[in-house]
Design goal:
With 355 residues, the chain is of the alpha/beta class. Helices cover 36% and strands 18% of the residues. Helix 10 (251-258) links the parallel strand 10 and strand 11. Helix 1 (7-22) packs across helix 2, helix 1 crosses helix 6 and helix 10 (251-258) packs parallel to helix 11.
């Protein structure tokens, strides 16, 4: 939405919020901090601040209604909620029953703050001259509670340790370097791009968005371009304007973008990485990507909330070799296919995945 953050400004606000978490809100190591917002920079700041004070971050599905939102807040045992105006309105009449402090990011100038709710910018301002105490965090300490989609009932909270976050990120780097070695070296930027710049179109409350849209870009000093909501025409403008290098999204969004009637009118030469995620790659999509993007590094994979997005993946020349595959199994993952009776299926035989 035309607002830019440098890393300096970003981490200054992270530090300010962390000091307020520890001070005014008395968040201690192991306490749960819930975040319920659309993708925005305040989501990212809240997540990083919670990590710095040793809290367990609880990303909540921002697509849910009142019942789903209240369920995740209470089920996770959250001590604090950071949300946007739309999510606050869903539970505003339930605040007394939920009974926890709330920090809100307003979206409208006419927003009226309830007495028990603080404004995000006010909290940041109050913490600007304060500091927090660094917390000792071990690899086996809890880090995140991610909720499943709830397709088989109520969403289930999946508790991840710091170890699993580090493993997931290192595994993604491993698979990226594997492709680079397979292809004879890293791909060169093009179309005016000077650094990796992903366009984030998947929600941060999903493991894929969390890692590819926040944790990995911070670790590798990438620039992230976020959209308030998906609009293929606006996406084409941003790709051209910001020299976006990568796009990882569900196949429907990729098809919507690449089939846009104005696609060829925009300079998309910087695009070099296109990844289909969240669903099986449909027939014709690999060919569509190849037709619209010059020498693309296409990718696909298989993952789960329970595995912090990592299971199997492939990109570049590996994808080109076998585009209908789910990818190379992660070296930190054990996977097998079993029959209905629990016995292991033979190679090529249909079965149920067990991790």
């Amino acid at each position: 939405e035309n607002e830019r953050y440098t890393y300096k400004r970003f981490f200054a606000e992270v530090d300010a919020l962390a000091s307020q978490f520890q001070g005014d809100y008395e968040i201690a190591k192991g306490d749960r901090v819930a975040i319920a917002m659309r993708n925005n920079v305040e989501w990212m700041i809240s997540c990083c601040a919670a990590i710095l004070v040793g809290a367990v971050v609880v990303p909540i599905n921002s697509w849910g209604k009142t019942a789903e939102l209240e369920y995740a807040i209470t089920d996770s045992g959250a001590s604090l909620l950071v949300c946007d105006e739309a999510r606050l309105k869903l539970i505003e009449n339930r605040l007394d029953d939920i009974d926890l402090p709330v920090i809100v990011v307003p979206a409208t100038e006419t927003f009226t703050r309830p007495d028990q709710v603080a404004l995000f910018d006010d909290v940041i301002s109050a913490g600007a001259e304060q500091s927090y105490t660094a917390v000792d965090v071990a690899s086996d300490d809890n880090a995140f509670i991610l909720y499943t989609s709830g397709s088989t009932g109520f969403p289930k909270g999946v508790l991840h340790r710091h170890r699993s976050i580090g493993q997931a990120m290192m595994n993604m780097m491993f698979l990226g370097l594997l492709v680079a070695e397979f292809e004879g070296g890293p791909r060169q930027y093009r179309g005016g791009a000077e650094r990796e710049t992903p366009l984030l179109t998947v929600p941060l409350f999903h493991a894929t968005g969390l890692i590819s849209g926040l944790l990995m870009p911070i670790m590798l000093a990438q620039k992230v371009v976020m959209m308030y909501k998906w609009d293929s025409g606006r996406a084409l403008e941003l790709i051209e304007q910001e020299r976006v290098t990568g796009l990882s999204s569900v196949p429907a969004i990729l098809q919507d973008l690449l089939n846009h009637p104005q696609y060829d009118s925009h300079d998309t030469r910087s695009l070099m990485r296109i990844s289909a995620a969240g669903a099986a790659t449909p027939a014709g999509l690999p060919e569509l990507i190849a037709a619209k993007v010059e020498n693309p590094s296409r990718s696909a994979g298989y993952a789960m909330t329970e595995t912090m997005a990592v299971c199997s993946t492939m990109s570049g020349a590996l994808f080109d070799f076998k585009p209908d595959s789910a990818g190379v199994v992660s070296p930190i993952m054990e996977l097998r296919l079993v029959r209905a009776d629990g016995s292991e299926a033979a190679d090529g035989e249909p079965g149920e995945i067990q991790l």
